[in-house]
Design a protein that fits this description.
242 residues, alpha/beta, Rossmann fold, seven-stranded mixed sheet
Length: 242
């Protein structure tokens, strides 16, 4: 257990000196952020939302401006000052948004059965299999019965199918990267999945994959509604509920 805790702590610590001013997702055709914005506008409901990895507030501001939720919890491994969160979202949003800098995956500041919706984009792709497992365990506790979760993460097969020109991005962190440029796509996907629980030395992508992610959801008795909303053409976004 201590080894796992050290690994998870190390994952979070990797982000301490990057993305000054807060992370923002770029508007590429394959990532289709406009499509995701439309999905959120048409499908969110409830009183309380949790956003994991809010960065500079790109999605936080959109969700706040929908005027749906009474309370929005925005959490990040970096501080609100580092991310310049309020500079982008606006101080007026403090009437509903609570920003919390986290140092673990336990969500201990949230009450049991208190969250209606969980949303996260461009975050779980940077979290290992063990970290994702820990987060889902915590989310099971804090979500209300029937709560919906919308989480994006990384799948090497989908990525390679849609961005074959960026094969080197999948290879970059794999232990055998010097020897696998000529490997078949099937072998590369296998190695990427096997490497989804290694200890990072810098911020990176973990290729957990749809099948592993779905099994983790089922481990914590979540019900899968849609394995992949297929809004983002490069990465899966799974919709599931408690």
């Amino acid at each position: 257990m201590n080894d796992t805790n050290n690994q998870l702590s190390n994952e979070l610590n990797q982000f301490q000196n990057i993305w000054h001013g807060g992370y923002f997702t770029g508007y590429s055709d394959k990532r289709n952020q406009k499509g995701l914005e439309e999905y959120l506008k048409n499908n969110l409901s409830g009183d309380t939302l949790l956003e994991i990895g809010c960065g500079g507030g790109q999605w936080s501001k959109l969700i706040y401006d929908l005027k749906i939720f009474k309370k929005i919890h925005c959490i990040d491994a970096l501080s609100e000052q580092h991310n310049k969160f309020w500079e982008f979202v606006g101080n007026n949003a403090k009437d509903k948004i609570m920003y919390t800098k986290v140092s673990d995956f336990e969500l201990s500041f949230l009450e049991e059965n208190s969250i209606d919706v969980v949303f996260s984009y461009d975050v779980f792709c940077h979290i290992s299999y063990s970290g994702t497992d820990a987060y889902l365990k915590s989310l099971r506790r804090v979500c209300k019965p029937g709560a919906k979760l919308i989480l994006m993460y990384a799948d090497a097969e989908k990525y390679l199918n849609n961005e074959p020109e960026n094969r080197s991005h999948v290879i970059r962190y794999l232990p055998k990267k010097k020897f696998i440029y000529n490997f078949s796509k099937k072998t590369l996907i296998r190695d990427a999945i096997k490497d989804s629980d290694s200890n990072p030395v810098e911020p990176r992508w973990f290729w957990i994959g749809i099948d592993q992610f779905v099994k983790l959801c089922q481990k914590y008795e979540f019900t899968i509604i849609n394995k992949d909303l297929n809004i983002d053409k490069t990465n899966p976004i799974t919709l599931f509920k408690k």
